[in-house]
Amino acid sequence: MMLRTLIILLLLFPSPLLATTWEGKRIDRIEINQNKALPSDAFSAAIGIAKGEIYQARAIRQAVERLYQTGKVASVEVQATPLRDESVVVTFVIVERRLISDIVFRGHRRFKQKELFNALHFTPGNPFDESQWEDRVPHLISLYKSEGYFNVQIETRFQPVSSDPFKTAVHIHITEGERARINKLHFTGPRLFSYLPLYLSVRSQRPRYFNARQLEKDINQLRTFYKKRGYLMATVGPPQVDFLPRRGEVNITIPIVASTKIDLFFHGVNTLTGLAQYAPVPIPEVTSLDHLVQISAENGDTTEVLDASARSIEMFYHSKGYPFAKVRVEVKPFPQENRKEIHFTIEGLTRVRIRDIAFSGNKTFSHQRLKKLVLLKEERIFTRSRFTQGQLQEDAENLTLFYKREGFQSAQVETDIHFDAKKKWATLTFRIKEGVQTRIGTIAMEGGQTLAPSPAKFLDLLPMRRGDPFHPGVLQDGARHILTTLSQSGYIDAQVDSDVTFSDDKTEAHIQYRVDEGKQVFLGTLRLSGNQTTRDETVLREMLIQQGDPYDYDKILKSQQRLSQTGLFSGIRFDPIRDDNNPTIQNIDLTVVERPRFVFELGPGYGDREKMRGFMELGHRNLFGTGRKISLHASGSKRERQYSLNYKEPRLLPYDIDTTLGATYFFIPRESFDEKALVGTWGIERR
Predict the structure, then answer these.
(1) Rg of the chain over CA atoms, in angstroms?
(2) Taking Cα atoms as reference points, which of 16, 45, 11 lies closest to residue 30?
(3) Which of 464, 484, 535, 604 has the fewest Cβ atoms surrounding its Cβ within 10 A?
(4) Residue 372 carries which DSSP code?
(5) CA atoms within 13 A on the CB side of 392
(6) Would you say 55 and 79 are in contact if contact means Cβ atoms under 8 Å apart?
(7) How many CB atoms lie within 10 A of CB 558?
(8) 640, 666 contact by CB (below 8 A)
(9) Which of 514, 460, 450, 518 is nearest to 485 (CA)?
(10) Dihedral through CA 218, CA 219, CA 220, CA 221, nearest 10?
(11) Burial class (CB in 10 A: 0-12, 13-18, 19+), 220
């Protein structure tokens, strides 16, 4: 009988063949191919099936999912091979998941290491896949070409880490080449203006270096140039950039297409006088309405676009306190002049003021208390009101939310608006239906025996008390507090469920928490990578959690903050890895990206008295890999000179105290004498 083998990829969904061919047969044995990521006992624990069991597609699918959840496999294939005795052999083919330990750049001068990482979208600690690098390297090339380095060459080398077979170091060597300058800038398309104002609008010209970001700014500047002159549908770009390899220069061609000129006019009509105003009613913070018109090269100037522009103008005036504003639009074509006029007439330009804000149905809270929650204000001598429908709706929603948080779960808030005959004044009324107020009756907890000082006393430490107003958020607050407390003691897999029951009259809510702590987890090994210069002890001394301590997320976060505050690293990453042989142990892979050790700054200046002045600073931020810092600063002018030497010791003995020492020398020449001074400083700073 010929043996047949079925290969199932991923097993995310069982196929009919999978369910019918092998379903119900006995598993003779389970084999593993290329399994270096998981030891045999850890593999058996992960898949949850064993030989002698009945083959079930659902169980196989769950086994694959659990293998992925270990975080140590990149892909899983399952092969099912039938035997003559109607049993099957199940084979798992596993491809290990490798991580990037370090990414080392060489030969880069133009860009900082952080910019290169941003272009790659890859950092140490990410999963490693050679095929992905084929997609990542072009991002680096594009970054360099955007700055004019068209001859850039990038070589990538992968080096497995001898101490960890599941990690790979990536070495990237960059040969930047010469940067290209601009040779010619040329415009194409109908010539409506002389080239001089166009050239004056852009900076990408000979003999500047090519820069794609600057070219994009120039394109936008040209669009603005045409738009201000009425060519709202003008298209500028996309630019064509031609690199001349022999000359190391580029030619830039920018196509511009502009045809019909569109002149915009806005007219306002005051509803009180009925007189036309050949400009809209002025609003102090607004100088133009042009930005509300949606005519563009992409949108065109169709009737739909003009109507949408009119609605946009209406909404703008409504938001400024003119709720009755209406906009009419009229188009006047002038085909002989290749021009058209678009007139927007704005009616109902009367600003509505708020005369009074009232509340009804509020029995629990006073008018004064509720008014403080409302952003709309009444018109007073020193208070200018602005009525908008949107703000009225937002205030009603805020009042509803306030009542719900105070225990009124069925509260409803509706609004009434009354305008006077001239529609200049509005009276607002918030009609409130409070309903029944629910307060917390009892708080109980099942489980949680590890909570200190005891589960019963721990309830007193929760953020809510008996008699407090009840709302669904208090359940989440209490559960979050319990989980945080358990997590600080190493119970990182704890689960908290909550139930609430109400009294018959809905006045009391009884809360019940069910706590499953799970197993207490401790920190195993902490593996450090990326610190090529910084000593291991310099990094580890900032850790607030040590091997054997309960695994505490909060301490890990604070440790990351402490490492960042040292100023030694531009990137810090913690990767937790559960020990497969011992589920109560969680290991950590700590990967850091070091900042440059040397600091050099130089700058000129000018003052009315000193005239020309300048400064220079030279420093080292990581002496001998210990985090010690030393810097020399010199500044001066014709009137004075100053030299400073500063040193920082990051740790004073075993304490979290930084110590600084400094010496400064002043020299100020006078007409009859020279003033000199040497000043020493000493300081301590507690972390």
Answers:
(1) 36
(2) 45
(3) 604
(4) T
(5) 24
(6) no
(7) 15
(8) yes
(9) 450
(10) 50
(11) exposed
Among 357-371, 609-623, 668-682, top mean pLDDT goes to 357-371
Q: Where are the beta strands (DSSP E) in 373-532?
A: 412-419, 425-433, 439-447, 495-502, 508-516, 522-529
User: How far apart (Å, rounded) are the C-alpha atoms in residues 62 and 13?
Assistant: 10
- Calpha distance 506→499 (Å, rounded): 15
| Distance, CA of 573 to CA of 656 (rounded, Å) | 23
- Name the token pair of 449: 């025996």
Higher pLDDT, 125 or 49: 49
Q: Contact 443/344 with Cβ under 8 angstroms?
A: no
Listed residue (338, 375, 336) closest to 357, CA to CA: 375
Tokens found for residue 100: 């990037």
Compute φ and ψ for 496, nearest 5 degrees.
-130, 120
What's the pLDDT score for residue 34? Answer: 60
φ, ψ at 386 (rounded to 5°): -145, 110
Mean per-residue pLDDT for 116-137?
A: 77
pTM over 0.85: no
Q: Which two tokens stand for residue 465?
A: 């008390």
- Please give the single-letter amino acid code of residue 659: T
Q: Quick one: the chain helix, strand, coil %, rounded to 5?
A: 25, 40, 35
Q: Which amino acid, residue 540? A: L
Instruction: Tell me how far CA of residue 335 lies from CA of 136, 260, 262, 339, 363, in angstroms.
Output: 53, 9, 11, 6, 68
Residue spans of alpha helices (H) in 207-287: 212-228
